[in-house]
Amino acid sequence: MAGSSIITVQTGLRCEHLHNLPIKLVNNTTSAKLEEKWTQSHAEGSDQAYLRGRLLRGTRVSLPEGYRGLVISSNGSYASSDECQRQWTTFSEFSSFTLWAHDVAPELSDPLRRALEWCALSNLVHTAITLEETEKELQSIISMTASIPQ
């Protein structure tokens, strides 16, 4: 059988601001050790930082309306007679983060920003439409096509 996951979401989580860095950490570096090599400044419209002497530029990205991000950590997994379950616990939540890139600030075409657009689009696609809204839209289309000269 396929494994499953259980996420325990605690109440009263602290809000944090996260950073999505374009680097790979080879080992489990603590944030304190990483902050020793981090210098950040705020400019108009974007942030700028140096990490290990390398220029990074960042842009603050908000999550779509109605969404919240969770920082989770695994409590380990256990195997029952039927399946393997993984336990997760939340530590904090966020509603925005800073997206970093090398040398230039991430643009609207950045893949992560584009992925977040799908959340809002999915809500629009899956929202129920009433009969009245459909009729109103049809009337608007009919009135527009009637005014076009033939």
TrEMBL record:
InterPro entries: RNase_H2_suC. One of its GO terms (cellular component) is ribonuclease H2 complex. Signal peptide: none annotated. Gene3D superfamilies: 2.40.128.680. Coiled coil: none annotated. Pfam families: RNase_H2_suC. It comes from the Eukaryota. One of its GO terms (biological process) is RNA catabolic process. This is Uncharacterized protein. It comes from Volvox reticuliferus.
